[in-house]
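Hey, can you fold this one?
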Amino acid sequence: GLLKMDPDGERFGAAAQYQSGLTPRNLDWSRLKLIHSGGKSDLCQLPFMRKSCDLLAERPEIGPRCGTYLSGASIARLLPGAELKPHFGTHPRLTVHLGLRVPSGAKMTVGGQEAFWHESR
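Sure. Predicted structure:
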């Protein structure tokens, strides 16, 4: 899928929405919105994203079938060496983090507890 089609992340960077204010540099953290309250995004039309989008769109917790404001699914990228500022959401959410490409020693801290990343899990 995405990793084979875009091994260096160039396409990802061109299509991504940069998240301002949570990293020292705007380009450090970006995301691709796949499913949102209005349904599937245009990115779901890409051949290598269709299966993932179809699976996500079937979930009642995501997208227009969910009664929660701003429900959705995205793929996010945090560049190596970058750090996110502490933050929290303003609406109910379930967040899942899966490392696809993980540099050695990568970790995140949630609620004061450190969790180390391991590739593909």
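Helices lie at 2-5, 10-15, 50-57. Let me know if you want another pass with a different chain boundary.
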